[in-house]
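Handout, section 4.2: multi-component inputs.
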Amino acid sequence: MAYDPTRLEEKWQRYWEQNATFRAEIDPARPKYYVLDMFPYPSGDGLHVGHPEGYTATDIIARYKRMRGFNVLHPMGWDAFGLPAEQYAIKTGTHPRVTTERNIENFRRQIKSLGFSYDWSREIDTTDARYVRWTQWIFRKLFERGLAYEAEVPVNWCPELGTVLANEEVIDGKSEVGGHPVVRLPLKQWMLRITQYADRLIEDLDDLDWPEPIKKMQRDWIGRSEGAHVRFPVLGHEGIEIEVFTTRPDTLFGATYMVLAPEHGLVEAITASDQQTEVKAYVDRAARRSERARMSNSGEKTGVATGAFARNPTNGEEIPIWVADYVLAGYGTGAIMAVPGHDQRDWEFAQKFGLPIREVVEGGNVEEAAWTGSGCATASDFLDGLETDAAKSKMIEWLESENRGAGTVTYKLRDWLFSRQRYWGEPFPVVHHEDGSIALVPESDLPLVLPELDDFKPSGENFEAPLTRVKDWIETTDAEGRRVLRDPNTMPQWAGSCWYFLRFLDPMNDEMPWSTEAENYWMPVDLYVGGAEHAVLHLLYARFWHKVFFDLGLVHTREPFQKLVNQGMILGESFRYYDDDLADEGKDSVTRYRSKDIRETDEGPVAKEDGRALKARWIQLGEVAYDDEGAPIHPQDAELELERVVEKMSKSKGNVINPDDVIRKHGADSMRLYEMFIGPLEKAAPWSTDGIQGIYRFLQRAWRLFHVGDDEQETFQAPVAGLGTDDQRRLTTQTILGVTEDLEAMRFNTAISKLMVFSRDITKDAPLPRESAEIFTLLLAPMAPHLSEEIWLLLGHEDTLAHEPWPKADESLLVEETITLIVQVNGKKRGEIEVPSDVSKKDAEQKALTVENVLKTLDGRQPKKIILVAGRLINIVG
RNA sequence: GCCCGGGUGGCGAAAUGGUAAACGCGGGCGACUUAAAAUCGCCUGGCUUCGGCCGUGCAGGUUCGAAUCCUGCUCCGGGCACCA
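Output:
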């Protein structure tokens, strides 16, 4: 039989399933290894080639670790609540549950077709009532601990989506999903007190084996800063003080004015009567300006004086109080002391409005720019002469002893806005009493399931969730028969993914979310692989919940994910041109442009010729035509040359590769190997339709190592008995060492290249020996499991190779009697010499100096110095 | 603006102080074939007066020796962005 991936892959996938080959059970006698993928949201588009990249990497590690004797937990599931299903429901009336089930079905089929070694008996679905029950159970715990609370907060309301979004889900004033505009308004919402864990979320990063940039992004996101709170009394308003936060208490003597954010609560109270109109106008305007507009002209400072003054507590100076939107209401206290000498923003503001600038730290020239570095304090009374750090401490001491302020820590991280005005999510397990108090739904009543609904539209105008309309669900009675209201909000999609890695440990448990026994054995996750887009959101939220579980005694590790790897994106090759059909009318008179005839401007692409506005267009991958030189051209217009662009795959760009097609044509093993071969896992790389051919050829060559005859009449040929020649044994040993090292370091691309070298050279001078044949099959198995299992069977083994021990290398075979040394003169290669492997420096030198080319280059000069690098080279300096 | 990551053949890439370009794609030549495909073998950085010379974004530096370490610049990708 010729190599027929479809036949083999179906056969072995069936075998693994029927024999439960990858079922994982707790076994205290063996070391465990938990390897996890970020589980997918099952979208309607199905899998794209990007998904299997990370899944293949974890699968190779899972299979490799099994062969190394580990008890491997490798599960898969579905993060299935989410906006797309709900939006599809709004459009078509199809219930999200129906869409979700269909999509899961398709995802499962596709993922299974790649032959991953998941323990499917542990499959979970976050929308399953048996799962939702425990998500709600966890919410109860959060509520009981005071970590969940309701608050009237300014939220990001997205009219288009009809819901609020977390700060993290808003990018440049637009929703991360769909790019719809977002406005700020105050609403009552569920919040989770993640800020209480801010310090631990920073500190515990230190011991994690994560990419440094991801750790840094998390630290920056939490944004811890140390400083002081200082209270400034307002003149003429007995008892009113403005509290500010500063990281530079050492510059207090340089504070020459103060600024309140427009939203600050004291603005109205302190504004002088003759400034009322102006201040009110400014505040109103700031409220109307979206976050985006405020940021876009960040350079230009605006503001207005309140006419009020405050007293600087250190020197008694009276300083003016302004209102300006460069001070953010949500950070610190929403008010600042302005030190224009030593803060660039204050400096710019002071320049524009003619406020005094004073130097209180030496080191710069405050006439020209703010000096934000450290230095000796000056013009600061009792701080004079102290270095910045000492001055800070001294000032905090003074503030505390005078009761004017105190040292403190502030974070950029806000509490987590945890409710959404959506249908397709977990309902909150709470009821609201008529007196406004909140009670938890008793544990025995969980899960609280979603009521049925026909119309999924958000009721946009009142900022209400769709569930508000289900009166007979919302209105209910509690155990004592009192009328109570359920909460119409649902949890955000993050809720399910905050703890799914724990549910995998014990997915059928209906007594507890997971058992202590399972948690003790399996946790933490040893390897977690997923996209870098989850660097802050998912990973921060999941770490937060995990720490709460730790405090509750539900888990025994501080951190859930010991090692994290971000896989790079697989990019697509697309073919672009431009036209002037801006309104997409498809009219006949459209003019098309080659990429070289356009120019990018801030407003978008324009024609170089006449500057008219253009729109980018793409030709679908399969429809591109080629001219005689092989250059891509428009299928209907041979004159129109297309531009090859490597970019993220998307439907609109026509560059999406469907894994089903790839598997049909070349098989799952080829797909797996190709994705691992195109480059380092962490790096983005373009999909190449030609490239997979090379991998397919390699697998065919591997197959033919064990077969004779032509395509029609190929029969298995058993390897010859024994260990083979010395060269064969050496090559086999080198391959074991190389592949093992590469797999340990997750360098799959170089591991594959070593197997290619083996398959090319092993039969060069002698037929394939059994020893090498078996070793090769086992080394290839984690990467191309279907092909390897079939060969293993042909070699006469009855059982799967999934639990065969990993080959051991006999390193003594690598020791050679003679080696080749490179001979360099002044660092340049001039020849080679054969020497005994334990050659002395003297002997090597003597021999090197007989090489004709070396003598010629030296041209009679005496060697000044000789460097011998054992086993590699000898360098003669002369 | 600030902070990361990166720049090596026509392309994906190897090599992290010691022979630059392993492995693969693409291209060329040859074998097999009536022919083609498939397969197998060899060649494939540039220049060359055939001795060599040049070559890892650019300019310097450290070193016997630098893609690798250091300084400055440049371009590309990502993150953050008035956080006091």
